Amino acid sequence: MEHKGIAMTTLPLNTYQQHHLRPTYDHHAPYLFRPMVRASQAHVVMLTEQGLIPAERGARLLRGLGELHAAVAADNTPPVFDGSVEDTYYLVEKRLAEACGIPTSQLDVQLARSRNDLDAGVFRMVLRGQLLRVLDRVLATGATALDRADRYADVVITGYTHRRPAQPTTIGHALAGYAEALAGEAVAYADLLDQMNRSPLGSCAFAGTDLDISPALLAELLGFDGLVTNSYEAVAGADHLVRVATLNAQALATGARLARTLMDWLTWRWVETPGDFTQGSSIMPQKRNPVVLEHLVSMAGATAGDAASVLNNVGAAWWEDSNNATTDVQVRLWDSDDRTERFFALLGGFLEQLAPLEPPTPTEIVRSGATTTAAADALTRHGVPFRAAHSVVGRLVRGGTPDAWTPDDVRAAAQAVGVTEPLDDAAVQDLIAAAVRPELVLDRAQADGPGAAAVRAQ
């Protein structure tokens, strides 16, 4: 077969090649070939500047690497695995030798470098690029959530706890809360990127080299902020890989919880079903199914599975260079990052189209019992101890919904639970007003609460 003018001989594959090397190559080569070429360009520049290889040999290698870079920029599809090379590392060597017109035995590109530190470096390069895209999506989704929170800070709904009506809140309050979660996740991704953007190159197998190389120059040429301090950790370490998997799982778990809440809002017709995120029914003409929310929950589950796989592999490895702690977890990380980026693109797009439809009426909120906490609090402002106020309202609830309470009912309930001082008219009126006017929550002054001004300040 031919690939970019390079002849490749199809060889019979043995069992190991068929069932491990080829599947791994097929997964890894599209991700790793380009950064391996970039890392090799930087390495050759460093070797030449350090006087470790003659300038003319360095120039020849850089010309060959330039050809490979141009070819992969035009077509990122690597040649089909044919058994002539073990992995992407040796594919780069083979193609570089052919581009330079020399046998692989005359290559200097691996001088003072191991597959160990090269893999560790390019893994960080790939993940760094993916995580930057994820962070962009997280920030964009947070900005969308904040915009909708500001827009709908005065749309009162029933807040739930344990799947039961609890207290009045607003769409804005809920979305501003999710935006705060996203802000925390964005900080965590930025911190992870800082950890990721440390170069392990120059560590070689794990113990460095006696040659006068410049790992700092390599780091600078490849856009790393600095070096991993210890060459053993540079090759053996996997904490940064675990953090990628677990942070993605955490971020998607939180987003999936919001997706489930949004499913309820759509079912109750509190908000419109965004047209771009629905599918029709195969048999029921009236159905518009917001299946994207189901997909988000499933994506969160798959990401949790990837995190579990990474943790299991890393925990099963030795504290040394080990494939199951580094190489074997890469596909799980790449898939996790790709899924995370798509997750936030979908969720952000959904939120962008979110709009109120038929939020619960004040009567519905009152009859759900969601205003009763505010009613009890109203009594405490008139000197009634909290537990007694709570008992008064509890007794009233057992007698009927708040919209049916009368001043006589309130006084009778207070007497029945043992409130020692008779309630004055102001106390009774405040309790009843709090019980039947859920919109009062919009005036709540507490800085982190659901008051409209507070939400917009948040």
What would you note in describing this structure?
With 458 residues, the chain is mainly alpha-helical. The chain has 3 domains: 2-111, Fumarase C, Chain B, domain 1; 116-210 and 238-352, Up-down Bundle (Fumarase C, Chain A, domain 2); 362-457. The chain is 61% helix and 5% strand. The protein has helices at 15-49, 55-74, 88-100, 115-151, 171-196, 215-221, 231-236, 239-267, 291-315, 330-352, 362-367, 372-380, 386-399, 407-416, 425-436, 452-457, and strands spanning 2-3, 6-7, 156-161, 164-170, 198-199, 226-227, 279-280, 288-289. A two-stranded antiparallel ribbon has the order 1-2. The model is unreliable at 1-9 (pLDDT under 50).
Query: What composes the largest sheet?
Result: 2 strands, antiparallel
CATH superfamily of the largest domain: Fumarase/aspartase (Central domain)
Query: What is the number of strand segments?
Result: 8
Question: How big a fraction of the residues is strand?
Answer: 5-15%
| CATH structural fold name of the largest domain | Fumarase C, Chain A, domain 2
- Sheet/helix structural class: mainly alpha
CATH level 1 name of the largest domain: Mainly Alpha
Query: How many structurally independent domains?
Result: 3
Tell me, briefly, the overall form: elongated
**Unreliable stretches covering 5 or more consecutive residues:** 1-9
Mean pLDDT: 94
* Spatial sequence of strands, sheet with the most strands: 1-2
What is the succession of H and E elements?
Answer: EEHHHHEEHEHEHHEEHHHHHHHH
- The CATH architecture of the largest domain is Up-down Bundle
